[in-house]
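Hi R.,

Here's the input for the (2S)-2-hydroxybutanedioic acid complex you asked about:
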Amino acid sequence: MKVSVLGAGGGIGQPLSLLLKLNESVDELSLYDIYGGYGVASDLSHIDRRCKVQGYEKEEEMEECLENSDIVIICAGIGRSSSDISRDELFNKNCLIIRKLVNKIIEFSENSIVLVISNPVNSLVPIVCEMFKKRGIDKRNKIYGITTLDLIRSEVFLREILNGKGIYEYDNAIQESIRVIGGHSKESIVPIILNREIKSKLSAIEYERFVKRVQNGGDEVVEAKNGRGSATLSMAFAGHRFVCCLLARLSGTSGDGAGESAYVGLAQPVPGLLHVEYFSMPLEINARGECVGVDSGLLRTLDATERRLVETAVSRVRQNVAQGQNYVSGTH
Ligand code: NAD
Ligand code: LMR
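And here is the predicted structure with (2S)-2-hydroxybutanedioic acid in place:
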C-alpha cells in the first residue's frame, strides 16, 4: 500500500506520518509539504521499519509523490488559532490550497482514495467531488471527509460522564454504542448514543451538555493551545484510525467496515436526509475502498431530540455544500 500525505510537515501531518510509518500495512509513504516535506521524511526514515519514506516539496515532484498512491490524505491548509474564528472562515484560504492539490491528484493519481482532513470539511469535500466531476470522473464513493475526531471525542466524553457517576460496567460497550453523524462543525455534529440503556444513565441536562461538548470539542483544544493552533495529536490518532479501517477493507481482513463514519457524498437519497447531498454517516466500504452504502437504518431509531439535532445539522451542511459547489462552478 502506498499512502501519500499532503501537508505532511504540519501539526497533523507529522504525527500522522509517524503513525503511518509504524503501520505494518503501509509499504510506502510519500510526504509532501511546501515547507518541511524533506525534513519529515528524512526524520522518519531513521526509524528502522520496513515502510519506505520519501519527501517532496516542489510542485514538479508531485507526479512522483502521487503516482500509484492507494490513499491520498489532504491535511494541508491553515487551521484556527482562536475559537472566535469559525471553521467556515478558513474556506477562502483553504479552497485555494485544496484546489491546487486536487488538480494534481486528478492528473497523477486519479484512482486513489482521497481523505480530506483540512477544514472546513463540510465544504471542501464537495469541492473535491465537484472538481473530479468537472473532469468527467464520478468519484464520490472514494472521497471521504474525516470526522473520526468527533467520534473519538464522543467516546471519551461519554466515558467521563459515566465514570464520574461511578458507572464502569459499560466501559467496553462505549465504542460500539456511539455514532456521530452530520458534518464537522458546531451544530452539524450530531452524536447518537445507540445503546438506550447507556443513554438512560444521563439526565436531560447531562445529555445536552454532552452534545454541546462534542460539538465544541475543537474549541476546547484551540483555547487550551492559546493561539498555537488546533487539535493535531488527537486528529492524527483519529485520521490513522480511519486509515486502519480502510486498509483492513482493502486487504480483506475486516468485515464490512461498519461503524466508522465519514463525511461522504450520498449516492442515493437517504430517507430522513432527503434534502442534503453530503453527510457523515456510518459507512459500508467494499474491498476496493469504495463507499457502497451508509447505515440509514440508524435514522429510524432516533428520538425526537435527536431528530431535531439532525434537522439543524442538515440545514447547516446544505449551506456549506452549496458554498463548495458554487465555488467550483464559478472557477475555470
Ligand atoms: P498546520 O498549519 O500545522 O499544517 C498545515 C501544513 O500545510 C503546513 O505544514 C503547510 O506548510 C502545509 N501547506 C500549506 N499549503 C500547502 C500546499 N499548497 N501544499 C502542501 N502543503 C501545504 O495545520 P494543522 O494543525 O496540521 O491543520 C491542518 C488542517 O486540518 C487545518 O485546516 C485544520 O483546521 C484541519 N483540521 C481538521 C480536523 C478534522 O477533524 N477534520 C481536525 C483538526 C484540524
Ligand atoms: C477540531 O475539531 O479539532 C478541528 O476541526 C480543528 C478546529 O479548528 O477545531
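One thing worth noting: Residues 27 and 50 are 7 Å apart (CA to CA).

Cheers,
M.
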